[in-house]
Amino acid sequence: MSAYALGLAGAIVLAVPLARGASPSANPGPAAVEIDVTARSIQPGELVVLTVDAPADVEGVHVRVFGHAIEPFPIAGGRWRALVGIDLDVKTGPHVVTVDAGHARATRTLHVLPKSFPTRRLTVDPDFVTPPPSATERIERDQQLLAKAWQSSAATRLWAEPFARPVGEVANSAFGTRSIFNGLPRTAHGGADFLSPAGTPVKAPNSGRILIAQDLYFSGNTVVIDHGLGLFSLLAHLSLIEVREGDRVAVGQVVGKVGATGRVTGPHLHWAVRLNGARVDPLSLLALLGRT
Ligand SMILES: [Zn+2]
After folding, report:
1. Where are the domains of the chain?
2. Left, alpha or beta for 219 (phi > 0: left; psi -120 to 50: alpha)?
3. How far apart are CA 213 and CA 22, in angstroms?
4. How far is the CA of 202 from the centre of ligand 1 (A)?
5. What is the mean pLDDT of residues 49-58?
6. How do residues 170-219 score in pLDDT, each as one tens digit?
7. CATH no. of 119-289
8. Is 101 within 8 Å of 52 (Cβ atoms)?
9. By the 8 A CB rule, do 230 and 275 touch?
10. What is the 243 CA–ligand 1 centroid distance (Å)?
């Protein structure tokens, strides 16, 4: 087990590193690449942390899974890390992770297990269930803004420290819940809700750059932080936004206050995490990379 894995409270090391090629007793062939997989579980909505041990002289490591490239970052001589999000809609079954490091290649298979999410019934202002025609343009603009944001991550890692809770209150485990608003099914709940009173300061879960600081139709006053390398935090329903687009924020810096703006039943903080397009449960991020 790596020193890193030992430091992960509650994390499960699902598999021991597998070296490609020669077994330890065989003649050394080309330098091996080892992949260590850490996750709470291999299921939709979960974060998977890959630790790659490559020959120390390798200058770049390339990771592919779920049909796209993941940008790894170096953490020590020859050791790299890559964060992989299993989107809510990823099909269950085997998905191969390919790691290329110099002339060496290693693969691992993630066996994504099914997960059944509960259904919840909520009653909100009807304008947030069947929006009036006057809101159509605004909703489309919001969707384009967010879609563009998810494509605008910094090419370097902007976070370093462990991730921190944005508020002190407990979160319910509502990630992935199939929501029925006023009797009508709507998209799955893509975040965790923290039951904090209105006015509670909301802190940046990690450092980054403010991409969005605006009032959006469904998520109300919304702050999106780009943490770099395809990782984002979205903090929604704020009563007040205290940062501006383009600002750099440090971990723990206040970005706004808990409120009840947008499609809500009452004051709470909604924190969503996007990782290379995948919707990931923020609680899995805290479990694997959070302060212990
Ligand atoms: Zn929510």
Report:
1. 3-112, 119-289
2. alpha
3. 52
4. 15
5. 94
6. 898 689 998 888 888 878 889 999 999 999 999 999 999 999 999 999 99
7. 2.70.70.10
8. yes
9. yes
10. 21
Q: Is 87 in contact with 277 (CB distance < 8 Å)?
A: yes
CA of 22 to the centre of ligand 1 (A): 49
C-alpha 272 to ligand 1 mean position (Å): 8
Spatial distance between the Cα atoms of 49 and 170, rounded to a whole number of angstroms: 24
Q: Does position 272 have pLDDT exceeding 90, yes or no?
A: yes
CATH topology of domain 3-112: Immunoglobulin-like (2.60.40)
Cα separation, 262 vs 276, in Å, equals 26
Contacting residues for 3 by C-beta, under 8 A, at least 6 apart: none
List of E strands, 159-261: 178-181, 184-185, 192-194, 201-203, 208-216, 220-228, 231-241, 248-249, 254-258
Q: Are 229 and 208 in contact (CB under 8 A)?
A: no
CA of 10 to the centre of ligand 1 (A): 24
